[in-house]
Amino acid sequence: MQRITIPNGEQVANDAKTFVLTMQHISTGEASIDESIEIDAIRQRLYDAIIAPILPIIEGYGTVYIAPDNELINLPFDLLYGKDKVRLADRHNCVKIECARDFLFNKMNVSSDKGTIIISDPEYDVRERTIEPEKTGRSDGERDRTLKLDVNEIDSLPFSRVEAYRISSRMGGELYSGSYATKQVVLSARGYENIHIATHGYFDVDSEYASLYSSCLVFAGVKNWYRTGVTTPAYGSGLLTADEVSRLDLSSTKLIVLSSCLSGMNDVLFNAGFYGMISALSAAGAKYVISNLWSANDFASAVFMDAFYYYYANGWNDPPTALSKARNYLRNVTVDELQRQGWFHPTIYQMLDPENRNLLHSLENKNGRLKPFRNESFWGGFTCYQCH
User: Fold this and answer.
1) In this structure, what DSSP letter does residue 108 have?
2) For residue 260, what are the β-bridge partners?
3) DSSP alpha helices (H): ranges in 255-377?
4) Which of 163, 178, 286, 358 to pair with 339, CA 20 to 30 A apart?
């Protein structure tokens, strides 16, 4: 064991926070010119401070485990590079863990009796005639309704429907979408080896409540609940908090993939490790979690996840390795390759709304050598966590 002291810790923490925030702005197209110019300098400072001192130690290892603290818990170490602009992810698979002492304890392997479950493209505003209110009202959800969650901005995710069907063709299993994509399905997901969830994620960094309550995923019926404040037997509130997730038994689950915006963000609490959806899934017993640190492009995420499960189902069933290969695929895939992979097939168009059909048609007609997802904002936010 070797101890290396990193100087200027406060500057490193500030740079880490700024880097994540800037990448989130870039992913939503809201980055200022100054942010876009400055991010490379910040990236290289972080690399020089954190990565460069340990390069001789980690040389030759395929996977590097990182147990960050403070503002570094949300930092995508994979994306850091020095003057040579070779990312850490180009040399190693990076896996985040809560604490280095996790290696001292072997997690009990619990066999799963079910395969894969896929929950995608929820019907956020369920038609009223399908809603049957509970006879007795509930008030324990009122705190969740105070979150700064604008339900008017929760739009459908048409490409997540495509994503789900392509994953299902590779993995088999059970598929729930539309009005069937409910939080109750997730709450009843005990016994599955793999759980894939494609929906909107939410993380309120300014919430007065602990992130176990302000970190959540949204499912069918959430807009109905926000309008009326009434839960239903079928849909509940449509809002699944990290607190609820932490009480599940997912001890037989090898992999959970959250194809959702901000689902990988954690609250920064001193000596608390991860504190958010990741810690909740860890407490529930999952072994690996893959999630996103910033906003996810609907189409890019679908292509990424299709590639990930291709690798995961075909010989690379170690999630960090499959993730690394999927990232590399997305950054290098061309329009011609998307064509060969069937992304412009008429059945895909039929699953989309007019706006996304136009988007797909526009991409189909671009130069075949174009790499539309080259920018790291499309793939760099996907991070692998190993839980204990």
Assistant:
1) P
2) none
3) 277-284, 298-313, 319-332, 335-340, 346-350, 354-364
4) 178
Q: Strands of 255-259's sheet, edge to edge?
A: 63-66, 93-96, 382-386, 288-292, 255-259, 192-198, 114-122, 174-178
| pTM for this predicted structure | 0.88
Backbone torsions φ then ψ of 327, nearest 5 degrees: -60, -45
How many C-alpha atoms does 147 have within 13 Å on its Cβ side?
Answer: 25
Alpha carbon 71 to its chain centroid, in Å, reads 19
Tens digit of each residue's pLDDT (9 = 90 or more) over 63-121: 999 988 878 888 999 999 999 999 999 999 999 988 766 666 655 667 777 999 999 99
pLDDT score recorded for residue 106:
59
378 touches 303 (CB < 8 A): no
Phi-psi region at 209: left, alpha or beta (left = phi > 0; alpha = psi -120 to 50)? beta
Question: For the chain, what is the total number of helices (H) and then of strands (E)?
Answer: 14, 11
- Specify the amino acid at residue 204: D
Indicate left, alpha or beta for 140 from its phi (over 0: left) and psi (-120 to 50: alpha).
Answer: alpha
Which residue from 201, 284, 288, 290 is spatially nearest to 244, judged by alpha carbons? 284
pLDDT (0 to 100) of residue 124: 94
Instruction: Tell how far CA 190 is from the center of its chain.
Output: 20
- Give me the sign of the Cα torsion angle 198, 199, 204, 207: negative
